[in-house]
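Hi everyone, sorry if this is the wrong subforum. Our group has a chain we'd like a structural model of before ordering constructs, and none of us has done structure prediction before. Sequence below.
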Amino acid sequence: MTAESRLNAAERIDRSRARAWVLQIHYRWESGGFEGSLRDALVDTTATRRISPRRLPFIRSLVILLDQHIEEIDKAISGALDNWSLDRLSAIDRAVLRIGAVELLECDDIPPKVAIQEAIHLAEAYGGDDSPRFVNGVLDALYKAPSAEG
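Answer:
Right subforum, don't worry. Here is the predicted structure as tokens:
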């Protein structure tokens, strides 16, 4: 049993809303011409916005993982894109894919199906009409791709 499957309903809601905060932080970092790292964008966001203290540990965890592994995550996503490049994607789709990918690749306590489903929910809420299907396809391909370890 994974840690994610042991969460109660309120904790699952907190994690879903935390992912939405990570999306906002990423979007601010990438699109707003924010100077500095994702961690800097996190610090600035938490200083200027009210975020539930229950959500902050998960937000911090995902932002730090994204910041530490952004190059590997982008490489993995690029390998799962069919006839697309990462820079051609909308900022929202790119951010949603990065969040889903970091959970797939770096968060052993989150089941892959949960990571993909949560990314689809973000795409439904914040992306375009085709975003949910696109995100599902890319993350599913990433999940099914053979790992470097074999």
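For your construct planning: The helical segments are 9-31, 38-48, 56-80, 91-106, 112-126, 131-144. The chain has six helices and no strands.
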